[in-house]
Amino acid sequence: MKLKTWLASVLLLTVAMLTATLGAFVGVNIGTDVSDLPSASNIVDILQANQITHVRLYDANAHLLQALSNTSIEVIVGVTNEEVLRIGESPSAAATWINKNVVAYVPSTNITGIAVGSEVLSTIPNVAPVLVPAMNSLHKALVAANLNFRVKVSTPQSMDIIPKPFPPSTATFNSSWNSTIYQLLQFLKNTNSSYMLNAYPYYGYTKGDGIFPIEYALFRPLPSVKQIVDPNTLFHYNSMFDAMVDATYYSIEALNFNNIPIVVTETGWPSFGGANEPDATEENAELYINNMIQRVMNDSGPPSQPNIAINTYIYELFNEDKRNGPVSEKNWGIFYTNGSTVYPLSFGASDQITGNSSGVFCVAKDGADTDKLQSGLSWACGQGGANCAAIQPGQPCYLPNNVKSHASYAYNDYYQRKHSSGGTCDFDGTATITTKDPSSSSCIFAGSSNSSTGGLSLPPTALGPSGPFGASMNLQVSSLKYLISAVGVFLALAVL
Fold first, then answer.
1. Phi–psi pair at 38, nearest 5 degrees
2. Where in the chain is the domain with CATH 3.20.20.80?
3. Considering the chain, what percentage of its residues have pLDDT values greater than 70?
4. Active-site position among 74, 82, 253, 266
5. CATH top-level class for 23-330?
6. Residue 266 designated active-site
7. Whose CA is closest to 55, among 387, 464, 349, 328?
8. Which stretch of DSSP H or E encloses residue 122?
């Protein structure tokens, strides 16, 4: 019996060590209040072209969930605020929701989380009494479907429920919410789930009346005379982002909970704003996002929890021009809907840059209808303005002489010329975005690193936000082999 207990401890330690070595990831939120929203398949093309492997949806959009199937991209699906009350009052409604929006898609679609509502306590406080009951009902439905170990349930909350986040060591949740938050933390603890935090240094800075320097909000180094230090712990905070995460850890600890990891479900910086929003600029957005990615990918936590990496989701994929509110509210996107970036991005811990046309190609889809390809080819070379001289007889890209190859060249030439001004890679559903350079030794596609048009290209094996738990797929497979081996050893010895 002692042997079995010891072996179980060893196995748990092995799992913990493997999980710890897999590292952090950076994902992205996908909002859909966009007037020219691309098709679900094109959205997935953009994600894959930029090695984005973790996404959060604000609902359970059937088109996106289907398009994400067989991609291995990890998906958090959302229960909308409008759905929380009904689910919280009816376990059968929760079971129906799980069957329709989770069971129907897994395992093809890699759903790993459910975000119940969005900032419920600060936006729809009247629903707070049923928030945790809704989470419990959803979890029980997952248990019934044998998915509770695969899919975790949590609820994103804003920093607004922590009235005084600085200094972090004295931060506490708004006491009027203590009962609900205690229930929430107990649920997260019982189900091994993470606390979901929406952390926005942009608002912390702009609403701070000059208390903190903008460098602190943008992850930029501070001179020694401006160092931000918690007077109680003497921890130095190099960014407001870290201080916000730590304030949340201390608030959780104040209610006598620990070992509940925090995942940042939203953070970002608007690239454009109104006359009264001078800090919403493309330069600041580029600095914030790229510095945040580099900070998250170093796999460390905030000063009070240095060994717990801060997995983070960028707000957001596209500018949502249909959203209400100030100008900045419509300009948080990191990509335009044609797949080009709003500003250069460096995904992952490397110096890989994703520019507006860097290493991204538009080619014909495999299996596309030949007649549609011919129509797309004719349009691109005619009205579209692509230079199709290279695919004429005797020219470098004429062979192989088939409509798919010629369409790929024409589509790409059009896309490289026009995407910065709104041109898309669609062509009636016959085109797709790829980072694999379709060039050959004799036929060079525009946008290739070998092309006269120049431009940086992403290496085929470029690192980006990684797979489950933030690791590359190779690391995950390798680790999984070791885990399986450990389980096998444990089971073999347990029967002795």
1. -65, 165
2. 23-330
3. 82
4. 266
5. alpha beta
6. yes
7. 464
8. helix 120-123
